[in-house]
Write a structure and sequence with these properties.
With 232 residues, the chain is α/β, with parallel strands linked by helices. Helix content is 38%, strand content 19%. It is built from 9 helices and 8 strands. It has an 8-stranded mixed β-sheet. Helix 4 (67-75) runs parallel beside helix 5. It is an enzyme of class 2 (transferase).
Length: 232
Amino acid sequence: MSDQQKMHRPIRSFVLRQGRLTPGQQRAFDALWPLYGIEYTGEPLDLTTLFGNDNPTLVEIGFGNGESLAQMAAAHPEQNYLGIEVHGPGVGHLLLKIQELGLTNIRIMKHDAIEVLNNCLADASLQGLFLFFPDPWHKKRHHKRRILNPTFLKQLYRVIKPGGFFHAATDWEEYAVQMMEVLGEASEQFQNSVGKGNYTPRPEYRPLTKFEQRGHRLGHGVWDLIFIRRPA
């Protein structure tokens, strides 16, 4: 890679660690990806056609192994869910959960979420967007890789409907503070659902992850932030 290419290479909020798919995950990819997977083309998505209905659509960025997303979709069949994740084993695990639970209201994209937001989602097309436990990039020199920044918020404002929501959660307190600062600076576009500067008690719809349950036992904190998209 040339020096010029390095200069123009985008800063990613993730490190691509593919890992090895289990035999079950590979079978899920082979059988279920054609049904639930969406190949990235850079073109806008028609969500009504994609899901076969005009139900509200919610997006989860970086769904990990997909357990929380599958639980939310199972509990709310009246809503559509689009999951975005770059790591193959997590996608494979979610495909297995879709099959296990008989879900029909999930679609998956295996691609960089920033590019999906920028190129594939129409204005005011989402009821809400979830960002649960993103990489905190805890070293100061890596803070520039954190996904939640003013540029990201501009895209959220564009794709979320007026009155829709953005819900972030983190178990890294310093990142929670920065999230609150960044969202607070966008007060003309987003309003804290529980009042300025306040964190939100975990809503029932967000499942507790195994990692989070272990953290609670060890006395670790988790911070939820839910902000409402203001009208234009």
